[in-house]
Amino acid sequence: MKVVDVKTKPAPLAEHPNGAPDCCGLYVHVPFCVRKCPYCSFFSITDLSLKKKYIDALAKEMTFYAGRRLFFDTVYFGGGTPCLLAPSEISFLLGRIRETFRISEDSEITLEANPGAVPAGGWRGYRQAGVNRVNLGAQSFREKNLRFLGRIHSAEAAARAVGSARDAGIENIGLDLIYGLPSQTMAEWQEDLRKALSLVPEHLSCYMLSYEKGTPMQRAAQRAEIVPLDESRSAGLFAFTLEFLAENGYPPYEISNFARTDSQNPGRFQSRHNRKYWDLSPYLGLGPSAHSYLPPARFSNVVSVEGYIRAVDGGRPPVRMSEIPNREQRMMERVMLGLRTAQGVDLARFAGDFGVSFCEVFARPLARMIREDFLVLSEKRCAPTFKGMRFHDGICELLVREI
């Protein structure tokens, strides 16, 4: 691997992929799993008997927003395990989405999938239904890691799924990987990354293992049954990941997300949908536990399949929480989300939205962050270096004190 100075190298800048930033994203939460992974804090259940009622409720929930004149250019089926819905069920939902909303002809339509849960003939069926992007939860290509993470698939199945999806005509494939497992070595993680790269995915998401509150893995760590990787080794793995993938043609466009470069269209393989979250573009979430941001309001749905179905069948939006962020909250969001990305904070947009200069508001900590090579400032943007991505939380904590 070519040695690069992590202290000074700025994160690579990538232009916005297809679709204007003000187009909405549509997220559909599929709350079913064959088995709950011990590290996962996302809402899901293993009772598949509710699937038919849930699908009917989704179609009804869409009608609550039909009059909002929303225009979507991304649809994202997340979970849970969305591939527990048959291709015919995905086709039905996409049909209802097109009937209810305005959808761009070149929309990015993503399906998250577990390599161990895709039905026979599923890939071709999903492609025919309209799915043009797949995010595979490979997590690791080492069997011992998959067992530790409670995954239901093998390393071979994950690799095979990539080929099967391509054979079915899906040309945009992302892989999710988890690292920072207890006692994981740099060599082991590099081997996982090399295996992932050998499959030539368009996208990689590399998430540091976290011990989320209320998960079996967090409880095991509290009982000292698991000893989390120490902070210095985790930091080393993070820095290595950014450098290694950038050197191999997958520069990070966000702290945990990497896209294969395309000289004709630099942002082509970035997740257009996920970019909306970091850009503070509007998005609508459907299904139990789904979150939405339709300015000026943020709101989220009930965290219960039964409660969700009950509300929708009763003619009520299944919203459990709603708020309108104040100016300070929106400014904090802009800083914290913007500095997760290689593009950073758009200075003109910040000034236009808040009526103040970014450089003036954050003058004192900004000078230090630039001097110590955490951030780089240009005429248009303030963006993190690789080192800045590593210390994102600490940088944002210093900046938001000025708000």
Helix and strand topology:
Blueprint: E1 24-30, H1 51-63, E2 71-79, H2 87-100, E3 102-113, H3 122-129, E4 133-139, H4 143-148, H5 155-167, E5 173-179, H6 186-198, E6 203-208, H7 216-222, H8 231-247, E7 252-254, E8 257-259, H9 272-279, E9 283-286, E10 291-294, E11 297-301, H10 305-313, E12 319-323, H11 327-338, E13 345-346, H12 347-354, H13 358-361, H14 363-371, E14 375-377, E15 381-384, H15 386-390, H16 392-400
Helix pairs in contact: 1-2, 1-10, 2-3, 6-8, 11-16
Quick structural summary:
With 403 residues, this protein is α/β, with parallel strands linked by helices.
Walkthrough of the structure:
- Helices cover 38% and strands 20% of the residues.
- It has helices spanning 51-63, 87-100, 122-129, 143-148, 155-167, 186-198, 216-222, 231-247, 272-279, 305-313, 327-338, 347-354, 358-361, 363-371, 386-390, 392-400, and strands spanning 24-30, 71-79, 102-113, 133-139, 173-179, 203-208, 252-254, 257-259, 283-286, 291-294, 297-301, 319-323, 345-346, 375-377, 381-384.
- The strands form 3 sheets. A 9-stranded mixed β-sheet has the order 7-8-6-5-4-3-2-1-9, with helices on both faces.
